[in-house]
Amino acid sequence: MAQEKKETTSSGLEWSLNVEDGSSKILVQEAGLATRAWLGLKGLFLKVRKFLEKAYDIGVNDPRKVVHCLKVGMALTIVSLFYYMRPLYEGIGGNAMWAIMTVVVVFENTAGATISKSLNRVFGTCLAGLLAFGVHWLACKSGEKFGPWIVGTSVFLLASAATFSRFIPSVKQLFDYGAMIFILTFSLVAVSGYRVDQLFELAYQRLSTIIIGTSLCILVSMLICPIWAGQELYALITSNMDKLANSLDGYVAEYFNPDDSNKNLLAYKCVLNSKASEESMANFARWEPAHGCFSFKHPWKQYPKIGAAMRSCAYCIEALNSCIDSENQAPEFIKKQLSTACLRVSSNSSSIIRVLAETIKAMKRSSKIEFLVEEMNGAVEELQEALKSLSELSNPPACKNTETVSSAAMETIPLMEVMPVVTFTSLLIEISARIKGIVKAVEELAKVAAFKDAAQDKCKENQPNNRLEQQGQTKDEETMKVLQRV
Amino acid sequence: MAQEKKETTSSGLEWSLNVEDGSSKILVQEAGLATRAWLGLKGLFLKVRKFLEKAYDIGVNDPRKVVHCLKVGMALTIVSLFYYMRPLYEGIGGNAMWAIMTVVVVFENTAGATISKSLNRVFGTCLAGLLAFGVHWLACKSGEKFGPWIVGTSVFLLASAATFSRFIPSVKQLFDYGAMIFILTFSLVAVSGYRVDQLFELAYQRLSTIIIGTSLCILVSMLICPIWAGQELYALITSNMDKLANSLDGYVAEYFNPDDSNKNLLAYKCVLNSKASEESMANFARWEPAHGCFSFKHPWKQYPKIGAAMRSCAYCIEALNSCIDSENQAPEFIKKQLSTACLRVSSNSSSIIRVLAETIKAMKRSSKIEFLVEEMNGAVEELQEALKSLSELSNPPACKNTETVSSAAMETIPLMEVMPVVTFTSLLIEISARIKGIVKAVEELAKVAAFKDAAQDKCKENQPNNRLEQQGQTKDEETMKVLQRV
Hints:
Low-confidence stretches of chain A: 1-28, 87-92, 395-410, 454-476, 482-486
Oligomer: homodimer
Order of helices and strands of chain A: HHHHHHHHHHHHHHHHHHHH
Structural class of chain A: mainly alpha
Mean pLDDT of chain A: 78
């Protein structure tokens, strides 16, 4: 009850609510209208202020969002010219509305999404228009009695079929919007054709306005501060790699030296949650023309695979958490014995991830990778040796007359106490194994995209890396803020 | 190159492609047009067949999708009546198109999504219409010189601001579509108002057709075989719980008895990947009226929290994988020593998850939960005891004159070999700790949604559980198929 009261007070609408509990209703009414109105206003003001602060933060953290908004405003203002200028107005008539509608609906944040929606709109409209024309012609031939039935049935069947096609993953991925536009155009043309006789005129007008609208959107989104889905995907993957490497280093350092407070500990959570954006960006990137260092046929589909390999690593890092928070902590001297080897494995692993990020950034195969993987394997073996020597410590070779100290040490380390450090080590070894999965995925990308030395030189002219890194950094900070709030 | 050739052959478009490598171009041309056309047709036919088979599978696995498509077809056919029937045609005129457009754009799979989009459309249109009317009035007062500037500037500013608002998470969650409709309507009314003088007439017509369209959509989606986002969310969460429990049981059984092949092993992957759908469904469910056992104010926001707690468990199950595939396997007798305790922890843990699923399904607090958690804690302690006795085995209490057998056994079990089983056990203990997080989340839901005994009786009348379970099962099978293909 108390909660409900609080809710109603903060929204300032309490007098219109049906409070079932009579007593509390009276309580609320006692407060006096003016006081409550004042409290409501104050609450509203605080909410609005918080909202605006949040909006400001979003704009400051990613100024490109603001640029995108200005681009939408610009495109809409330009398209309005079709109404203002008389010659164009005469030519396109009331249908100029379609151009405005196209701009509003089609303009998306990334160039790829805009192009995808534009092409979907144009082809969906064309296909549906042609089909609707056929149905209309058939309906006219069938006379007044059967015509409406033919139109009605065809609308029912095609709308149902097109709606169903949107459930099929391959269609949904590429033509979801096109299917919707198909239904829309088909219904409009088939039905309105029954009344209006200027079907060709209508089709021509609609198509031309849509083409004007989509061309404008594509041009504005590609020419003015373009945001390429491909480049975003590429930045996301590389920055996620850096985050993964930082988290891995951070966790291992945290475990062995809890005093070194590391801010980047939770950065790997971004890797866990970026599946959906990776996939949608890879989809949109396929529609984009060549830009920056990316050719038109750049294998975008490979990036989500790299993302999946990274996620499989991140799951293990998530599990590392448990060892750090565990109540049973291994005695310091055991930790010390393993720390050098563990730190070596983690630094080798994270440097592999960083080199892979570098490989993708520079689009140049690194000669170091094989050597680094070898080194990581060596470090893992060394860690396993350290574990063996640890087991020798707790299992002194048979029962010679060992010193009392050693025997005491032996008895004070039950397996239970070694458990967290053993689990930690074992997860670390698993992480290093999963990193090989990332290496494989990146190597496949390098193969399919034909990464080579020459690519680096070509890329150096544009040098998008610095900007992307910077941008990655602001996003990092944003993420850390969000995580800290959580 | 070989790959490129294969690609072009299967798409049947090889003669129009620019092959940079001359030699392979000649090779392709040698094949003969007829043969290549035949191969292309065959490939196309196979692709179409595969596509249709996939579509058929989707329909069979979830017949409600087919029903949804028929509902869309029906709503569109009904709305077409506005064109066929003369009296209505006279009344609503060319604007009846807006009703068709509304149905196409607003009709979504779940009732919640349809209601959300409908309300967004109506309120976005109203708000934008009022604002646009104000701007139009101001523009008219300012004369021919300043009028266009006022309209243009207002379109630019409001479109930019509304586009920006779509980046703010709280707005995006609830009013994304409304913001788009706001931009659309404002632009159309403000700009067209500059030409057409019947602004009130236009606004009235547009609003009435939109209300007709949205009402029709809401009615059809709620009255004919409704698919409630809330019920879907509830089914997803409970079926994911069962999957998690099955996977956990399966993994532990697989580790200790590798011969028992278990199909449900990978079911937990669904839990890892359902974050996005949980969140979107929780958003849509908030718009739905009371249905089934759910009141209007049902705390839908709580379900994604339960989902998050389950995911944190699933991450650990993912890490369990590594122990099963590990090269180092503990000797059988050590495994045997731990198996009883491990199996007890896992069966206790999974039965807790199942009881939680039951709690949500029946909307009734279970009296067993506390007891089961106690029992799980007991099983964990027992497992820790078993580990202790294991460490005694490898660390025989100091150096009495132990028998040779024991000393030999001790030396044959280095820590390296015990490592996987220790890691497995430690992850299992961590999973049981994380299950307490699920218990907490479900208890919070039970508290906020006021689960009690009476709720169960109310629910029994509708009994959606059987249908939901069945549906969950077909989805399970679908998932398993997908996973097997991967």
